[in-house]
Amino acid sequence: MSGWTIYCQTCRPTGIQCGDCAERQQARRRPRAYWKARGRVLKAAREAGASCALAYDDVCTGTPTEADHIIPVSEGGSHDEANLQATCQACNAHKNLLSRRTSHPRQATRPQPRHPGLRDTPDTDTVLRSHGIDPEALSAKERAAALAALG
Ligand SMILES: [Zn+2]
Ligand SMILES: [Zn+2]
């Protein structure tokens, strides 16, 4: 299997794996410990009659068939049972999609929750002036230090 790269029709011509293919490849490389833990997590969920742990509103099919890494492997999450949760295939795929989009927050399908009581953060110059400090007289470093001191 070494030296063998997974491509789909879309990414084969480019010679660069797309996200889906990279993920599929990564999944195949998972150690036996993962597959064992996955089996236990899914069995436990089935026996408990648990439904999907992620339960994304629009996509969830309810029946857990996948073991999702709570902390993604790419972020140092382990293949231990403690880091796996039973989810449906649709939510698992949806979560992967969302995590891939985190570098482009505007594309996220879920709007950020609003906090009506929260006002816009005043800009730092205003904050400093309100404490009798002239922001113009400070270097960037001094400004940061002054703001940190003010909390
Ligand atoms: Zn591909
Ligand atoms: Zn689900």
Question: Could you explain how this protein is built, in words?
Answer:
By secondary structure, this protein is mainly alpha-helical. It folds into 3 domains: 1-30, no CATH class; 38-107; 119-151, no CATH class. It contains 5 helices and 2 strands, in the order ααββααα. It has helices at 19-28, 32-48, 89-100, 124-130, 140-150; strands at residues 66-69, 84-87. It has a two-stranded antiparallel ribbon with strand order 1-2. It is elongated. Residues 104-109 have low confidence and may be disordered. Bound molecules: zinc ion (2 copies).
Question: Topology of this protein?
Answer:
Elements: H1 19-28, H2 32-48, E1 66-69, E2 84-87, H3 89-100, H4 124-130, H5 140-150
Antiparallel strand pairs: 1-2
Q: What structural keywords apply?
A:
single chain; 151 residues; mainly alpha; two-stranded antiparallel sheet; 2 strands; 5% strand; binds zinc ion
Structure in a nutshell:
By secondary structure, the protein is mainly alpha-helical. The protein contains 5 helices and 2 strands.
Strand order of the largest sheet: 1-2
Please work out how many helical segments DSSP would assign: 5
Helix content: 25-40%
The average pLDDT value, as a whole number, equals: 84
Number of strands: 2
Overall radius of gyration: 23 Å
Distance between the termini: 55 Å
Q: Which hetero ligands occur in this complex? A: zinc ion
In this structure, how is the largest beta sheet organized? 2 strands, antiparallel
Structural class: mainly alpha
Proportion of strand residues? 5-15%
Organism: Galactobacter valiniphilus
Region (Disordered): 99-129
GO molecular function, one term: nucleic acid binding
Domain HNH nuclease: 40-93
